[in-house]
Amino acid sequence: MKKIVSLLLVFLICATSLSACAGDGYIKRYGTSDLYDKSDMDSAVRTIMRRFHSWEDDCRMIEVAYAGDEVSKENLSYCNSLTNGEPYDACIVFETAFRTLDRTQGLNPNDFYTGYRWYLARTGSGQWKVVACGYG
Predict the structure, then answer these.
(1) What is the pTM of this model?
(2) What does the alpha-carbon distance between residue 22 and residue 28 come to, in Å, rounded to a whole number?
(3) Rounded distance, CA 77 to CA 41, Å?
(4) What DSSP line would sit under 87-99, residue for residue?
């Protein structure tokens, strides 16, 4: 009996640690960053999810993962090329995986999409803004 309880406990610990942060119905993977803390990343993910939920296609987010400091640094000039006003001084990039449901218009129904990128930028400590998203 002790072995069964021990195995169940180990399984639960492993399952919890593998899921990263799945409290919102999807997995968040932040990795490590010297540029952004968890609060910055949480704010960016909330911005992504607001945009994602505004899509006309019926989709379900599976995972949101920080693409890393290097990718974010490399894309600041790209984000600035898309602005019509004050240049941004920060860029953060996430990759997502999502699933489409039956009712979809522009995407394949009942399909799984991975590597879909979100490019967000801000000036100072302002709010993150989605400046581009997609494959590319």
Answers:
(1) 0.80
(2) 6
(3) 20
(4) PPSEEEEEEEEEE
